[in-house]
Design brief:
five-stranded antiparallel β-sheet; 1 helix; SH3 type barrels; mainly beta; globular; 6% helix; single chain
Length: 84
Amino acid sequence: MTSVPDQPNSSAPGRFTVGAKVWFRDGAGGDHIARLPGTVVEDYGDEVAANAHLGRDWAPVRRWAVALDEGRLVFSDGHDLEDR
């Protein structure tokens, strides 16, 4: 099992790219974690770097926008994404 990094927004640079097919691990169902297929549609890496300059720790920008095949749009720091 992959461990969750201690710091948000810490996915490796260049690991995912816009258009990459990924698995999103959705833990919204309690103890059950679903692996849902999707596609990376946006990389907010530049905005993530600005998080520290916002002067707040609520509503942080997430690095990746992922369009799930089921129709939802989710945002991720990368710790819940896997290459497909």
